[in-house]
Amino acid sequence: MAKTTARRRATKQTARKPAARKPAAKKKVARKAATTTARRAAAPSKPVVGWWEITLTNKADSDRVKGFFTEIFGWKIESDPQYDYGQVSHHDAGIGGGIGPSSHPGAKNQVTFYVEVDDIPAYLGRIEGAGGRTIMPATRISPTTEFAQFTDPAGNLIGLYRST
């Protein structure tokens, strides 16, 4: 009988504790989520790599490289025949990108990554102040997208872009 009474008491106490704490725990989680959401909304997002590009010296190399990545990784590359520029979705590659011949005379084969920022001219100013060099100023390529290119102090070509 003593074991049964002790078991009943333990069961009643255990059953009461979660019920008493549960509403407070839910309120705490809700407050934390609201605070985190407000903090994220107030803070500017950090620049992240959001695009990559492989540019080649000619159309034959461009076609060969597009075929290579399609064969090896199974990426679907949608080409724009006007510019012979193929775009790869972020769904296929993790980060979206493009492959095509360069439009710049004397260009060489290269890979460039693009960092998404909120203010391209401001970042170009910071880059030049830190020893980088603007290669292409902010250039609008669509009603919602602009990009620029710069070199770091070692001469590596890197891009910036902004989408609205």
Topology:
Blueprint: H1 2-42, E1 48-56, H2 59-73, E2 77-80, E3 85-88, H3 90-93, E4 97-101, E5 110-116, H4 120-129, E6 133-142, E7 145-151, E8 157-163
Parallel strand pairs: 1-4, 5-8
Antiparallel strand pairs: 1-5, 2-3, 3-4, 6-7, 7-8
Give a quick summary of the entry.
With 164 residues, the protein is an alpha+beta fold.
Query: What gap, in angstroms, lies between the N and C termini?
Result: 73 Å
Largest sheet: 8 strands, mixed
Query: What's the helix-strand series?
Result: HEHEEHEEHEEE
Shape: globular
How does this model look, in words?
By secondary structure, the chain is α+β, with helices and mostly antiparallel strands. It contains four helices and eight strands; from the N terminus they run αβαββαββαβββ. The protein has helices spanning 2-42, 59-73, 90-93, 120-129; strands at 48-56, 77-80, 85-88, 97-101, 110-116, 133-142, 145-151, 157-163. Strands 2-3-4-1-5-8-7-6 form an eight-stranded mixed β-sheet. Residues 14-44 have low confidence and may be disordered.
Features of this protein?
single chain, alpha+beta, eight-stranded mixed sheet
